[in-house]
Design brief:
The protein is mostly beta strands and about 220 residues long. The chain has two domains: about 80 residues, Rossmann fold; about 130 residues, Hexapeptide repeat proteins (UDP N-Acetylglucosamine Acyltransferase, domain 1, 3 Solenoid), CATH 2.160.10. The protein contains two helices and 24 strands. Strands 6-9-12-15-18-21-23-24 form an eight-stranded mixed sheet, with no helix packed on it. It has a six-stranded parallel sheet with strand order 7-10-13-16-19-22, with no helix packed on it. Strands 3-4-2-1-5 form a five-stranded mixed sheet. It is globular, with a radius of gyration of 17 Å. The relative contact order is 0.13. The structure holds coenzyme A (COA). The site of coenzyme A has 11 residues, from β23.
Length: about 220
């Protein structure tokens, strides 16, 4: 039996989870040494990520940026942290359809509605008031900012980021590591790694985010 929960990353997301009243939290782990021994909204910072190796609580990686979140999960797994150690958080006010699923390590915040046959992968973050509809697939470590709306049968690739209040037309694919800007209206597919903005959404110049990260990065949001 695994008791207690450690939030990994002293981030805004961690503070949102604390404010939402997530239960069982006994501490935060963060690699910023200046935070060790301090507290964040009343929760003690107990050391760096590596501390997880010699502790036994469940873990919830609360880093807002998907590539960084995936890198921390990979690091923890490399240290022998088993799958069952990762917790999942679904806010009490979120509505998850009975035929939809949420993978281990994911965070689904207040007011999210997930309708039928949607699959939310592992270590995905879905911020408040998102609407995920029938047959959507959200791959691992993707992030949906507040208010995102997905039509049916949308696929969001691993580590993709969809900005606040963006809308995605049914059947579209958002490629791995892609970014969709705030308030965009996505009418078709967004290629992996590209940033698209606007109504209708178009590529944002030649600028792209980093491709999907498989190694370890120190960046935190
Ligand atoms: C798309 C985004 C990632 C681009 O960020 P960036 O690379 O720092 O881009 P900049 O702010 O330098 O803007 C670059 C250009 O894109 C435009 N732009 C940026 N975001 C835009 C958006 N959402 N819609 C339309 N145009 C946008 C800017 O006006 C600017 O245009 P210009 O070159 O003609 O002046 C960012 O603006 C965004 O939308 N992020 C999502 C934020 C969010 O949802 N946060 C939730 C936090 S919980």
């Amino acid at each position: 039996m695994i008791a207690g929960l450690l939030l990994v990353g002293a981030s805004g997301l961690a503070r949102e989870l604390i404010a939402a009243g997530i239960s069982g939290v006994v501490g935060i782990l963060d690699d910023d040494e200046t935070l060790w021994g301090t507290d964040v909204d009343g929760v003690p910072v107990r050391g760096g990520t590596a501390t997880a190796r010699r502790r036994s609580e469940r873990l919830l990686v609360c880093v807002g940026q998907g590539a960084a979140r995936a890198a921390i999960v990979a690091q923890l797994r490399g240290w022998g942290v088993t799958d069952e150690r990762f917790a999942t958080y679904i806010a009490p006010s979120a509505r998850l359809g009975t035929t939809s699923t949420v993978g281990r390590g994911s965070i689904v915040l207040d007011g999210v509605v997930v309708t039928a046959h949607a699959r939310i992968g592992r270590h995905v973050v879905v911020m408040p008031n998102c609407t995920i509809t029938h047959d959507d697939v959200i791959e691992d470590a993707a992030t949906l900012a507040a208010g995102v709306a997905l039509g049916g049968g949308v696929r969001v690739g691993a580590q993709a980021y969809i900005g606040m209040n963006a809308a995605v037309r049914q059947g579209s694919r958002i490629g791995a590591g892609a970014t969709v800007g705030m308030s965009a209206a996505v009418l078709g597919d967004v290629p992996a790694g590209e940033t698209w903005v606007g109504v209708p959404a178009r590529p944002m110049g030649a600028r792209t985010r980093d491709a999907v990260v498989t190694g370890v990065r120190e960046e935190r949001v």
